[in-house]
Amino acid sequence: MICIQQLNYAYGKKQVLKNIQLDFNENQFSVILGRNGCGKSTLFKLMAGLENIQQGSILYAGRALTQFKGKDKATLLGFLPQFHKTVFPFKVRDVIITGRAAFSRFHPSKEDWKLVDQAMADLDIEHLADRAYTELSGGERQLVMIARILVQSPKIILLDEPTNHLDVYYQSYLMKKLRQLSRQNFTVIAIMHDPNLAFLFADQLFFMRQHEVIQPDPRSKVTDPKFLKSVYDVEFHEAMIQDKTIVVPDHSWL
């Protein structure tokens, strides 16, 4: 679905992406992991068309994003940035309908509102429909913003740190929903910090370190403590929970 080749990017003289090469498979839940400042958010901005490509290419089913306009772009790609804030107390359903702006302008049709109802049902947030967005918890707001993307019916959903600032319940709930969406004809790609959540729910895992993509030795697992130390600069220990492997930071040096 997405092919990134020889992608380089710099802010002035500061190189923030170096020779990025990635392939994201269609209808899977993929996660990019890495420390703060390694280039993950800049990569997403380029993928979403918010920054101009300086060198290299990003192709969506063989086409550059600049070849998609208006409705075609809206049905290709939905993007949820790391930070979003609304200061006006709009009702949740009115926030979600703005995701149909590329299709209906300022006159939503009955079909547009049906899509809003369907998105709320898919995320189990129908009970929030008439609540003011500004009164919601962080987890509820995140689900509303994802519903806003769903009404676009995009093939690809990009989420920059979707579990950030969420409690344990909403982290688990949201990850399950994202995995479900990838099984419902969406290609879901997220930036995350927590490797364990990614290990438990994602289909594809990619790692970034110092502005480059790195992968473990083919003979090693992604949970290999030595590899993870190279990503996070922290010692890890592996642990088995039922049939799943998680990792625990080593705090013995504290």
TrEMBL record:
Q: Does the keyword Iron-sulfur apply?
A: no
Q: What residue stretches are annotated with the ABC transporter domain?
A: 2-235
Which keywords accompany this UniProt record? ATP-binding, Nucleotide-binding, Translocase, Transport
Query: Which Gene3D superfamilies does the protein's record reference?
Result: P-loop containing nucleotide triphosphate hydrolases
**Among its keywords, does the record have Transferase?**
no
Q: Which InterPro entries match?
A: AAA+_ATPase, ABC_transporter-like_ATP-bd, ABC_transporter-like_CS, P-loop_NTPase
Q: Which CDD domains match?
A: ABC_Iron-Siderophores_B12_Hemin
Q: Which Pfam family is an annotated match for this chain, by its short name?
A: ABC_tran
Top-level taxon of origin: Bacteria
Q: Which SMART domains match?
A: AAA (SM00382)
- What is a GO molecular function of this protein? ATP binding
Protein function: Part of the ABC transporter complex HmuTUV involved in hemin import. Responsible for energy coupling to the transport system.
- Please state which protein family the record places this protein in: Belongs to the ABC transporter superfamily.
Q: What is this protein called?
A: ABC transporter ATP-binding protein
In which organism is this protein found? Answer: Acinetobacter sichuanensis
